[in-house]
Specification:
There is one protein chain. The mean pLDDT is 88. The protein is 65% helix and 0% strand. It has helices at residues 5-11, 17-30, 36-46, 50-57, 66-78. By secondary structure, it is mainly alpha-helical. The protein has one domain (5-78): DNA polymerase, domain 1, CATH 1.10.150. The chain has five helices and no strands.
């Protein structure tokens, strides 16, 4: 299943403006580099609750899924978040 850039961009609209910006920048800069599995995983990540994602990105918690953790790591590395 092909996950389009426009579908991901629409799906990345969040309740927290900073997360909107973070996801939009990540997709704009790295979409073409992602494998189909990573694109599907990103879509799954975007189904998660905003506060969970924020805690994962800030390193306060970890998702149970290795797939989601991989994407969190990609996002954090793209913004040089430690």
């Amino acid at each position: 299943m092909d996950i389009s850039r426009s579908k991901l961009l629409w799906h990345c609209r969040r309740g927290i403006r900073e997360m909107d910006i973070l996801f939009r920048e990540f997709i704009d800069q790295h979409y073409d580099e992602l494998s189909e599995e990573e694109k599907q995983g990103l879509s799954k990540l975007l189904d998660e609750a905003d506060l969970d994602i924020l805690n994962w990105i800030m390193g306060k918690d970890k998702p149970e899924s290795d797939e989601l953790m991989h994407l969190i790591t990609l996002i954090r590395n793209s913004r040089k978040i430690k």
